[in-house]
Amino acid sequence: MYRVGFSAGLLAIAFCASAATLQQLSLDEIGDSATAIVRARIVSATAAFSGPTIYTHYKIQISETLKGQPPAEFVLPGGIFGHFRQSFPGVPALAPGSEHVLFLWTSRATGLTFPVGLTQGILDVSSQQNGSIFLSRRRIGELMLDVTGRPVIDRPPRTALGALRSRIVSRLPKDGPAAPSGAAK
Questions:
Q1: What is the tens place of the pLDDT at every residue in 9-45?
Q2: Is residue 184 in some structural domain?
Q3: DSSP code per residue over 104-135
Q4: Which three-class secondary structure state does DSSP give residue 103?
Q5: Residues 8, 29: contact at Cβ < 8 Å?
Q6: In the predicted model, is pLDDT for residue 179 greater than 90?
Q7: Is residue 160 one of the residues assigned to a domain?
Q8: Which contacts (CB < 8 Å, 24+ apart) does range 71-76 have?
Q9: Domain count, the chain
Q10: Range of the domain at 9
Q11: Span 131-138, mean pLDDT?
């Protein structure tokens, strides 16, 4: 539980900074911190102010739930609202129609749902010729630090969806949520 609070604190600091510095998280750390993990397609993106910050709200169509209760949408800081534009280093813009596995965290204080570790919590989905599903993430160009505060090189995860499912199930608490639901590829 401490790690979720710490990661959320780092996320908040990153929003306020003029240049983002991210703590490098392993796939297991991202999964453990997530309140929900879903395979979903971006349906739409709309921006709105929340206080002084513009957030882009992404509505999603969920094809599979791997952990937790899936939200109907999540947000990323930045976007275009009217004549105003805000952007934040390390924050991707996602296109409607794109498919991702999303590691999401919902703030109890605001009720807003964010990807864990910003870009680190968004994996792109691609279908292989043999029918298998492969997940990957683009390299992050922002400064990344390890848990001791030393700069590290980003090593984006690449894995098969089936391997990720097994990994998530193996890390769920014994008395926790049920196994993943949805597509079985």
A1: 444 444 444 466 788 899 999 999 999 999 999 999 9
A2: no
A3: EEE-TTT--EEETTGGGGEEEEEE-TTS-EEE
A4: strand
A5: no
A6: no
A7: yes
A8: 71/36, 71/104, 71/106, 71/113, 73/113, 74/102, 74/104, 74/113, 74/114, 74/115, 75/112, 75/113, 75/114, 76/114, 76/115, 76/118
A9: 1
A10: 2-171
A11: 93
3-state secondary structure at position 140 = coil
Side chain identity at 14, as an amino acid letter? A
Give the mean pLDDT of the chain. Answer: 86
Q: Is residue 133 part of a domain?
A: yes
Largest CA distance in the chain: 50
Q: Which two tokens stand for residue 70?
A: 């899936």
What single string gives the DSSP state of each residue in 57-101? EEEEEEEEEEESPPPSEEEEE-EEETTEEE--TT-----TT-EEE
Q: Is residue 7 part of a domain?
A: yes
* CB distance 175 to 161 below 8 Å: no
What does the alpha-carbon distance between residue 136 and residue 140 come to, in Å, rounded to a whole number? 12
Amino acid at 183: A
> Parallel, antiparallel, or unpaired for β 151-152 and 143-145?
antiparallel
The tokens for 40 are: 């979903």
- Residue whose entry in the numeric block shows the structure tokens 């739930």: 65
**CA–CA dist 122, 136 (Å, integer):** 9
